[in-house]
Amino acid sequence: MNEVVTSYEYLVHCGAFGDRIEVIKYLMLRLINEKSTGIGAWDVQARLQDMGIQLSTATAGRYLKELDTDGYTNKISNKGRVLTENGTERLEALSMAVTSSILHKKID
Predict the structure, then answer these.
(1) Which helix (H) or strand (E) holds 88?
(2) Which of 108, 51, 46 is nearest to 61 (CA)?
(3) Is 53 helix (H, G, I), strand (E, B) or coil?
(4) Is the dihedral of CA 45, 30, 98, 21 positive or negative?
(5) For 21-47, b where at least 16 C-beta lie within 10 A, e where not — what string?
(6) Helix, strand, or coil here: 81?
(7) Are the CB atoms for 72 and 83 separated by under 8 Å?
(8) E strand intervals along the chain
């Protein structure tokens, strides 16, 4: 199921998110979580592009700053961002919402 859950198009249509930006920010949280030493806008943009998401580095940087402002990430000098405790909780909550949505769709 992990492969399905990381599919951008599937996430857009699963019903767990209000819009595409929320999906992108969820995927960013996942990417940041995978790299405990920090990840920057360039890496995030490249990894999102590998997932089929066309996003400029500047836009990726703006979304990362929004995650900082929301208290989900911290910027660590030039090493990039890491998740805060709130970010980890948010990621877990969103992952549960995705799983719940997928299960509800399968039942329907």
Answers:
(1) helix 85-107
(2) 46
(3) coil
(4) negative
(5) eebbbbbbbbbbbebeebbbbebbbeb
(6) strand
(7) yes
(8) 73-76, 80-83
Structure tokens at 69: 């402002």
Q: What is the pLDDT of residues 98-107, one digit of tens each?
A: 988 888 777 7
Q: How far apart are CA 35 and CA 41, in angstroms?
A: 13
CA distance 43 to 91: 19
In order of 80, 81, 92, 105, the CA distances from 32 in angstroms are 9, 7, 13, 28
Give Dmax (Cα) for the chain.
47
pLDDT, tens digit (0-9, with 9 covering 90-100), for 4-32: 456 888 888 888 898 999 999 999 999 99
Whole-angstrom CA distances from 105 to 14, 21, 90, 93, 101 are 8, 22, 22, 18, 6
Q: What is the dihedral of CA 38, 44, 47, 53, to 10 degrees?
A: 160
What pTM was computed for the model?
0.89
